[in-house]
Specification:
Elements: H1 10-33, E1 41-45, H2 51-60, E2 65-70, H3 73-85, E3 91-95, E4 108-114, H4 123-131, E5 134-146, H5 158-174, H6 184-190, E6 195-205, H7 210-225, H8 232-249, E7 254-265
Parallel strand pairs: 1-2, 1-4, 2-3, 4-5
Antiparallel strand pairs: 5-7, 6-7
Bound molecules: S-adenosylmethionine.
């Protein structure tokens, strides 16, 4: 399996949490639409800083349980500290991956992956292993990004459109499973599952969307350089400011990457 190209330095864990703030409404719609409900037992694979697991923990409530796993010990330590400082009792983090059986855990009702299949060289193999953790009739829900079809800005903003093109080419080397988002239905089918439903959304950037532009700029620099250069924070702030100024000047509307959200169920 591929390593996670962006590493787990504090700057990357912070980027994941900034990203999570923007993505939360979309992921929450996915989880609710796919039937996540109070009392369920949930597994998140590739939990990173823990934000999706925290969202799931809110939705399943005190009678439910969430386990987040990630193969990076830095991510697990960080997510565990956040759970502890937030006083969360229904979420636990372990170092692991879909290929490592979880000892002492019963099969889960619901499995979540966000921004994780795009990092797999073999997304089908990953998904097959992941389903082994689910009970019969359990649900898999995935939220994955794709930047190949981003529509032009309105009105045309050449600096932002050029940025989107460069962003996409940077992802082509950084993402081992770059097609996973728009192949989710096929990946489910290859695992013997039929996608029940799904949707695709885009975040938009407007002149006051500070977080949106910071997210796009930090993500671009991370993908482009693989690991963060020392001046990454100031470079990202400058790039975000340049993009936002260009949008503000024309009161423009610009797009972020497609957010593909699909779910499927195991046979009962
Ligand atoms: C982009 S982050 C997403 C984190 C989180 N799901 C979110 O959306 O905030 C991807 C995470 O998946 C983890 N990861 C990638 N492949 C994995 C695998 N095969 N097993 C476990 N973790 C994996 C990486 O270490 C990284 O922390």
């Amino acid at each position: 399996m591929a390593t996670y190209h962006l590493g787990h330095a504090p700057i990357e864990l912070a980027r994941l949490t900034l990203q999570a703030e923007l993505l939360r409404p979309i992921t929450e719609r996915l989880l609710r639409s796919a039937g996540l409900a109070p009392g369920m037992r949930v597994l998140e694979i590739g939990c990173g800083a823990g934000d999706v697991s925290f969202l799931a923990a809110d939705l399943v409530g005190p009678q439910g349980r969430v386990v987040g796993i990630d193969r990076a010990p830095e991510a697990i330590q960080h997510a565990t500290e956040r759970a502890r400082s937030g006083g969360l009792r229904n979420v636990t983090f372990y170092k692991g991956g879909p290929d490592i059986p979880l000892s002492g855990e019963e099969p889960f009702d619901f499995l979540i992956g966000r921004y994780v299949l795009v990092h797999q060289q073999d997304p089908v193999g990953f998904m097959r292993l992941a389903t082994a953790n689910l009970r019969p009739g359990g649900t898999l829900a995935f939220h994955e990004p794709d930047s190949s079809l981003i529509a032009p800005s309105r009105p045309p903003i050449p600096i932002y459109d050029a940025f989107n093109a460069q962003y996409h080419s940077a992802t082509q080397t950084a993402l081992a499973g770059k097609e996973a988002a728009f192949r989710l239905a096929a990946i489910f089918a290859d695992c013997g599952l039929v996608s029940s439903e799904g949707f695709c959304e885009r975040l938009v950037g407007l002149e006051n969307s500070d977080l949106f532009f910071l997210w796009r700029a930090t993500s671009y620099l991370a993908f482009k350089s693989g690991l963060y250069p020392d001046q990454a924070t100031s470079d990202a702030a400058q790039l975000a400011a340049d993009l936002q100024t260009a949008v503000r000047t024309v009161h423009g509307q610009v797009f972020g990457p497609d957010q593909w959200c699909l779910w499927a169920k195991l046979p009962a």
